[in-house]
Design a protein that fits this description.
heterodimer, A: alpha+beta, Beta-lactamase, five-stranded antiparallel beta sheet, 17 helices, 34% helix, B: mainly alpha, two-stranded antiparallel sheet, 13 helices, 2 strands, 2% strand
């Protein structure tokens, strides 16, 4: 029987031996399958990667100016990683990639050899760099988009807008203040790896857009003038704020120097992140005399016609006050006090009022507490009150002409805006609208406080008009009546006044009979020390263009129109 | 008698009436495996195809194309008496060696290894399996009892096997080289090698294999990982854990065809070497057993064909092809079930891979041919006294 078969007995035996091994192997495998599939011996649910938790980040809201121009928007950067086992041409790839990523070729080759699924090469590159990498004809590089905040206007409004860090958190300015509104609400959810499962949107709340009171054109003009002023007067830094005193809306807010909000992390000088409008404080100097005068008139202590005798020196609480020019003009009226910015006069009327009355007015003007403007990190300023350890009697005199207290620029312009708005201080604000559509929140102008009567405001304004016309013609603007006051303040460092460095400032508002804008110009450490020669002409230069841009008619045109309108009635 | 004489005695044409007298059980098992394979390949590749090639049918089409080519190959092979292959076994082996050399010098590296030409689409190492076994069967059967002689047996055998294996190892594709060596040794053993010589060759080959495992960095890492796994399953590597998780998720009856979730991200090489894990997840233990059963049936019919073959060339060739399928399937399944260190070897007829499927089908064509010839020969037995022995 076997003779017809190709295999002899010995060969058959050997075949069966091999077959036995095969069968045993098969039994082992079936046993293993049974163990894993029927008896479930392996703790595989721990190993499974079928679901992973994701944090879904809604897109951050856009920031617009009042006319809809984009000030801050979202874009993407890319994260560059490599899947080492997908790299087919490590030599070529590293040679091509090294100059793009600015990394050494050897580091890249090192990364390609790692026994990991992914190796991060660069946590963040810009879109053009990513495009260059994408165009390389080699395999293995992965580009993942990550959100990045863009500021299409560059450095414009830097301190006001703030910046967004790589975690998506706003740092400073509006980005910080409105973090919650802008960022929306992230939600975490378990997402299935399988494309067979339909994924639901897991975003809890979308980010809201912001519309600002800022006008991009006004801001641009103001920034231009600030740069020019710093250049002309050799100042190291400075701020300009333009506000509508009737509503508290900020039309422009410029500061220099500025950091780049897009590449904020490249900023070497950390102090640049201190917001100069709301965080940094200074001594206001003579601008304060406007408010001392307003308090004195409002409290009935003086009238514009009241006179006092100026002996050139006044002792209050052991401190001797002199006039800035060391003059002793003798009998002087209130308007001249303002015009010539007499320290002795300001101190005199403050002592006439008494500490109680003076400080109660100063508190109503908002000193020593934040204005509540919607920008992150607002400081309170410092005005020690009688009864506090920091206060001594001489402060009544020095505070009256703006020394021995600290204010922020926004605090100062807000306080003075009472004079420009019939005695009412409006809440200063930057965000006109949050969100869009029916759910949008729209800011309603609100009165922050009423420190003085409308009558007082008008009286002090007209005194300030006369003062400017008489002593600071540099601040005048053709065809407009300007009310305002200069201030020159010393800079204290470590409790000692510096000899040469001052802060020159000017606050002015116009048209004086019906103010539409109030402007603060502050220049730090200019070469010429007096505010009347630095901040005042800078104010004039700026405002003469600003009135055109803001469409504020010259006084005679406006008054004629009023007359015509009255006749029509 | 000499080799030349043996060939000349055979007729090469098959009578037309007998062309379709093949082994239907074997064909049925093969057909079932192919259908299952296409289903699972589609399930494992629709997402990959969509993502990599923007066509969810891309991989299925390629696999189907290879299958059609393979079936055409079977049809052509069935037109001839398989003894015709003796004539071409030497040129085929030569062609294979040339192919392997081309790959070594000009092939494109994928995952750090040069295994194919034209972006890895054509893999001569797959072809090497078939042509090597064909040549060894031809060579062993022509030597008869002389293979027990050192000069005629062991030395030439070792040179052939080591030569082909070395070219494959250099790619480096240690698992395919191991498979080729293992099948060659099986043939040598069954053909009647001297026990002592066989033990010596086994020692040498095994030693070489061990050295290679410890020298090639990726192989050594996998072996270390496997040792860890044996001590503590939770120490297993990512690939092993994910295939066990797929099997576990499948349970007894599976999550349903197409429903596997492990295939998407977790399971590496889900459509090629890891396809049994996808199958186990979708069709469960039952499905896995079905595949093992079908493969078992193929192997059983293959052994029957070897036993009944007309001469020792037919026997050895049938055994070579059968043991190739058996070992390849066993190694693949052993890897998936974590009995063996991870190695990339496809599951015959199921795994995605054009070269692998085409060559496996050609092998099956030869096996079907041998079994048909055996059946014809047995029926013709009373009228014929022809025998090789």
């Amino acid at each position: 029987m076997n003779n017809k078969q190709a295999l002899n007995l010995s060969q058959l035996r050997r075949l069966w031996l091999v077959l036995t091994f095969v069968i045993i192997a098969a039994i082992v495998i079936v046993g293993r399958l049974m163990a894993f599939q029927v008896f479930q011996v392996a703790p595989w649910p721990e190993w499974i990667g079928g679901e992973h938790t994701v944090i879904a980040q809604p897109e951050r809201g856009t920031i617009y100016d009042r006319n809809g121009a984009i000030l801050a928007a979202n874009g993407v950067d890319y994260q560059v990683s490599v899947a080492p086992n997908m790299v087919t041409e490590p030599e070529e790839l590293s040679t091509a990639l090294a100059p793009i990523l600015q990394q050494s070729r050897y580091d890249l080759l090192d990364a390609f050899e790692q026994e990991r699924q992914f190796v991060m090469l660069d946590g963040r590159v810009t879109a053009p760099v990513a495009a260059a990498i994408d165009n390389l004809p080699y395999y293995g590089i992965q580009l993942d988009p990550i959100p990045r905040r863009f500021y299409p206007q560059g450095k414009m409004l830097c301190h006001t807008l703030g910046y967004v860090d790589f975690n998506g958190d706003g740092g400073g300015g509006l980005e910080g203040q409105y973090q919650q509104e802008l960022a929306g609400e992230a939600a975490s959810a378990s997402l299935n790896d399988s494309p067979l499962t339909v994924q639901e949107s897991v975003i809890a709340r979308e980010g809201s857009d912001l519309t600002l009171t800022i006008d991009r054109s006004v801001q641009s003009l103001v920034e231009h003038h600030l740069t020019q002023a710093l250049d002309t007067y050799g100042a190291v830094s400075g701020e300009i704020i333009v506000m509508d005193p009737r509503t508290g809306a900020i039309l422009a807010m410029a500061a220099s120097p500025c950091y780049d909000p897009y590449a904020y992390y490249d900023t070497e000088d950390e102090s640049l992140f201190l917001n100069p409008f709301v965080t940094r404080q200074y001594e206001p100097g003579s601008v304060m005399k406007l408010l001392t005068m307003a308090a004195a008139i409002d409290s009935g202590t003086v009238t514009p016609q009241t006179t006092y005798y100026d002996a050139g020196v006044l002792e209050v609480g052991g401190h001797l006050t002199y006039n800035w020019d060391l003059s002793a003009p003798g009998t002087t009226d209130m308007t001249t006090l303002l015009a010539r910015s007499l320290n002795v006069g300001a101190a005199t009327i403050a002592t006439w009022m008494g500490a109680d009355t003076f400080y109660s007015y100063m508190q109503r003007f908002g000193f020593g507490r934040p204005t509540g403007i919607d920008v992150m990190s607002e400081a309170s300023g410092l005005m020690p009150l009688p009864g506090s350890e920091l206060w001594t009697e001489s402060f009544l005199a020095t505070n009256a002409y703006g020394q021995a207290l600290a204010v922020t620029p926004i605090q100062m312009i807000t306080a003075v805006s009472a004079l420009a708005n019939d005695g009412d201080i409006m809440q200063p604000y930057l965000v006109e609208k949050i969100g869009s559509g029916d759910d949008a929140f729209i800011h309603t102008p609100t009165i922050l406080s009423r420190p003085i009567s409308a009558e007082t405001a008008r009286q002090v304004t007209s005194m300030a008009v006369t003062a400017v016309a008489r002593e600071v013609p540099q601040a005048l603007v053709d065809d407009y009546t300007v009310a305002g006051k200069t201030g020159t303040a010393q800079i204290a460092e470590n409790g000692v006044y510096l000899q040469d460095d001052v802060i020159g400032s000017f606050i002015g508002w116009l048209p004086a009979d019906s103010p539409e804008i109030i402007v603060l110009v502050k220049l730090d450490r200019p070469e010429t020390p007096w505010g009347s020669y630095t901040a005042a002409p800078a104010f004039s230069d700026l405002v003469s263009e600003l009135v055109v841009l803001l469409d504020i008619p010259p006084d005679n045109v406006r008054l004629q129109a009023d007359v015509i309108a009255a006749r029509g009635n | 008698m000499t080799t030349i004489n043996v060939i000349r005695k055979r007729t090469v044409r098959v009578q037309p009436s007998l062309k379709f007298q093949f082994d239907y059980w074997m064909a049925l098992a093969l057909a079932a495996l192919l259908v299952l394979g296409l289903l699972i390949v589609y399930s494992a590749t629709f997402d990959l195809g969509l993502q990599a090639k923007e066509d969810s049918l891309y991989y299925l089409k390629r696999q189907f194309g290879a299958m059609i080519l393979g079936l055409m190959g079977i049809f052509i092979i069935m037109q001839f008496d398989y003894h015709a292959l003796r004539r071409v076994s030497v040129p085929f082996l030569g062609l294979t060696l040339v192919g392997l050399l081309i790959v070594l010098f000009f092939g494109e590296a994928i995952f750090g290894a040069r295994r194919g030409i034209s972006a890895g689409s054509y893999q001569p190492s797959e072809l090497a399996k078939l042509t090597t076994f064909l040549y060894i069967a031809h060579w062993l059967s022509s030597k008869g009892e002389r293979i027990k002689n050192l000069t005629y047996g062991l030395i030439p055998f070792s040179v052939i096997t080591a030569g082909v294996s070395a070219l494959i190892v250099l790619q480096p594709d240690l698992s395919t080289a191991g498979l080729v060596t293992l099948v060659a040794f099986t043939l040598f053993f069954i053909a009647g090698a001297d026990w002592r010589q066989f033990a010596l060759a086994g020692l040498l080959g095994g030693g070489f294999f061990l050295i290679m495992i410890n020298t090639l960095p990726h192989a050594a890492a996998r072996v270390d990982e496997f040792k860890l796994t044996l001590e503590d399953p939770s120490q297993a590597g990512w690939q092993v854990k994910q295939s066990i998780a797929a099997l576990g998720q499948g349970g007894v009856f599976g999550v349903g065809l197409g429903e596997s979730t492990q295939k998407f991200e977790a399971l590496p090489a889900a459509h090629t070497d890891g396809i049994f894990a996808v199958l186990g997840e979708e069709l469960g233990f039952v499905g896995g057993l079905l595949v093992i059963g079908l493969l078992g049936m193929l192997i059983w019919r293959g052994i029957l064909a070897a036993q009944r073959a007309r001469d020792s060339f037919g026997s050895l060739l049938a055994l070579g092809i059968t043991s190739w399928m058996a070992y390849q399937a066993l190694i693949n399944l052993a890897v998936i079930t974590a009995v063996m260190p991870f190695t990339g070897i496809p599951l015959p007829f199921i795994s995605y891979g054009g070269s692998s499927l085409l060559i496996s089908l050609l092998g099956m064509g030869i096996l079907l041919n041998i079994s048909r010839d055996a059946a014809i020969t047995q029926r013709a037995q009373p009228r014929s006294k022809r025998s090789d022995q």
